[in-house]
Structure formats: structure tokens, C-alpha cells
Amino acid sequence: MKLIQSRDNPFFKELVKLSGSARNRGRAGQTLLDGAHLLAAYLDAGHQPRHILLNAAALQDGEIAGLLVRLNDVPVTQLDDKLYAQLSELKTPTGLLALIDLPQPDVSAATSRFALLLEDIQDPGNLGSMLRSAGAAGCDAVFLSPACADAWSPKVLRASMGGHFCLSIHEQQDLLKVAGEFSGMRLATTLHATHGLYECDLLGSVAFMMGNEGAGLSDALLACATHKITIPMPGKIESLNAAAATAICLFEAVRQRLGIGN
User: Fold this and answer.
1) Do 106 and 165 meet the contact criterion of CB atoms below 8 Å apart?
2) What is the 3-state secondary structure (H, E, C) of 154-165?
């Protein structure tokens, strides 16, 4: 096992660039997974990382040791604790980072049957929660507008809890073009809709279009929706968090497809 103790190490410098910049992640086509849970989800999805990075404490961790057994000839490097702390945003380091290639999306708008279109979702926690819900609900593809948060940032990855690895994720997308290529229902959530979510038949091909946390969907995307819907809210709150609204919509589709309550 190699040990890196100098911040001038060329490999460490490249890792610092990846950890702090969406542009560098996109240019390299790589990102860092922080923690045993994310690495386990990545391995369970049939992938292998490029490199494993550990701090000193990780060498005594049984869970991490179990994961290392599952790696096929993947190089492992121990970093000096101070260097490791530069790569992890967590106050209490997990002890393990995995360098991975960004998975390439393999489901297009034309072939998707259960999609999520996200316009200008800027909060990394919200975006990660949406991807987690999409993965849990069985979506096959998620399309993100250029103004969305970086899907492969450490904060989004942590919030998604492995949802990335069961989805085809398309970033920097023209959502009007995506919507036009999708052959099924295109549902836009808006407070001004006259029809409710629970009135819709969601058994066919469905794409939910969710908008910015404050502004909602743009007029252009609203105009291309086949159905404009609202989520019934009998309480005295005006609107829902974007991630919560997404989960409700996705799992109403799941409920109908499983025939629950019919």
C-alpha cells in the first residue's frame, strides 16, 4: 500500500481539484465517493472504482476491510490524515474515499418510460434527495437543466445515498428538447393547476417535470406539459419543499403501478 504524505504529490493535487470543482470533475469524467455506504452501493451496482484512498483509522475498520476484499486489483493508497481531511467535507471523516469514473447514461428521453426532469434545482441536498427518491421509485432516467447543482458533487452524492448508481443521469440538458422527445405523459407541478395528482392515470410512460425551489417551472416547460397538476394540501401551508413534492409524485405512480388501494 502506497503512502502519500506531501501535498505536493501530483496525484494528490489532482484529487484536490476533483474534490472542489464541478468543472474539473466534468473535465476528468471522475469524482470521489466519500464513505463505505456509497462505495458499497457503487460495488452492488456492478462497478469497480479506479482507486481507494484511506486515512490511518480506516486500517482498523472492519466494514472498510470487508469492502476492500471485494475490489479486483484496485490500487489502495493511504493518505496522511491532514491530506485526507482536505479531500473530505465531513467534520468526522469516514476514512475512505473512492475515485470513480462518472457512469455514462444509457437511457435516452426517447427510450425512457419513467423519467424525472429537473429545472434549476440549486440546493445540493434537494437534488440528492430527488435522485434518491427517483432511484427508490424505479425511475430509469433523470434529466437536469444547466442551472442545476452538480449531480456528482460530494453533497449531492451523500444526500442521494446511492441513488446515482441505479439511474441514467443526464446533466446540462435542454429540457424543452428532452420533453419533446419523451413519448409519454409530461406532468408539470404547479399551484395553479385545476387537476390534482391523484386524478391522473400514471400507469403508462410518465415524466414528471419539477422546477426551481423558489420560482417553480418556467413558462416554457409548463407550456409543453401534457398535464398540469397540483398536489392536494388541505393544511394551511402554501407549498411543499421541492424534494418532498417530487417524492409524493413519484410514489403515487409507484402506488398505482403496484395496484395498491385500487
Assistant:
1) no
2) HHHHHHHCCHHH
Q: Is residue 188 part of a domain?
A: yes
Boundary-marking domain end, from 101, 136, 153: 101
d(CA 177, CA 135): 23
Radius of gyration of the chain (CA): 20
Give the C-alpha separation, 206 to 209, whole Å: 10
Label residue 262 by pLDDT band (50, 70, 90). low
The shares of helix, strand and coil residues in the chain, as percent rounded to the nearest 5, are 40, 20, 40
Residue 27 belongs to domain spanning: 2-101
Examine the domain organization and report whether 23 and 70 are in the same domain. Answer: yes
Among residues 75, 101, 127, the one where a domain terminates is 101
How many CB atoms are located within 10 Å of the residue 232 CB?
Answer: 11
Task: At 218, list the grid cell.
Answer: 418556467
Q: Cell 486500517 sits at which residue?
A: 59
Name the pTM for this structure: 0.94
Q: Give the C-alpha separation, 146 to 143, whole Å.
A: 10
High-pLDDT (> 70) share of the chain, %: 100
- The mean pLDDT of 60-73, rounded to a whole number, is 92
Instruction: Count CB-CB contacts under 10 A for residue 168.
Output: 18
Three-state SS for 43?
helix
